Amino acid sequence: MKEPESSFRVLVAWIAPVTCIYGLDYLTNGYECDPYVTNFLNKYNVHIMPVHNPDGYYYSWHSDRLWRKNRNRNPNDTCYGVDLGQNYDEGLDLGRYYDDGHGTEDSCSKNYEGPTGFSELETQAVRDYINELQSTRNLTAFFTIHSYLQPWLYAYGWSGESVPEEPEVSRVAQIGVNATESVHNTQYRVGSFYNLVRK
């Protein structure tokens, strides 16, 4: 029987990579010391990708603190970068088909979605890696960590439809929120990306 897999991916915001690295440190140092960590890692293989936009992340540290795009030069343009969070194709719940102004075709905008879904090497790499995990390693969960707002979001992002498993997804998300809130009493909202962010 294949081991279940979990995957974590983050975008450029400064705290998100640090959060993933903290989680990695917690899991590796807690194994065989903390029974919860040991039990979790004995059940699941965890894949953590702390940064999937290294050039944009570097640029945000050295040139523009609020930079969120990669640093690719846009063809036939003087502007740089694509917002990788907008560069996924419809159906991955990170979708590029926004009607509310989040994604834009203006290449100079901080929210530029790129010429097509998966036009960027970074989003292609994440897509291919996740597809590989889905087809060969029994992927059971995929999380993205962002540092803006305080929602605990799940699918869908491109549509107001409910996912077929919404009661279970919502139940599990609420468990995560309750655990997170218990540490610092920080309040989070739970719901679909579409209903909490897009509306």
List keywords for this structure.
single chain; 199 residues; alpha/beta; Aminopeptidase; three-stranded parallel β-sheet; two-stranded parallel ribbon; 6 helices; 5 strands; globular
Extract low-pLDDT stretches.
8-12, 93-101
How many angstroms separate the termini?
Answer: 41 Å
Beta percentage is 5-15%
**Strand order of the main beta sheet, please?**
2-1-3
Tell me, briefly, the overall form.
Answer: globular
Largest sheet, if any?
A: 3 strands, parallel
**CATH architecture assignment name of the largest domain:** 3-Layer(aba) Sandwich
| Radius of gyration, taken over Cα atoms and rounded to an integer in Å | 18 Å
The helix/strand order is: EHHEHHEEHEH
Number of domains: 2
Number of helical regions? 6
- CATH overall fold name of the largest domain: Aminopeptidase
Count every beta strand, where a strand is a DSSP E run of 2 or more residues. 5
Compact description:
This protein has 199 residues and is of the alpha/beta class. 38% of the residues lie in helices and 13% in strands. Strands 2-1-3 form a three-stranded parallel β-sheet, with helices on both faces. Strands 4-5 form a two-stranded parallel sheet.
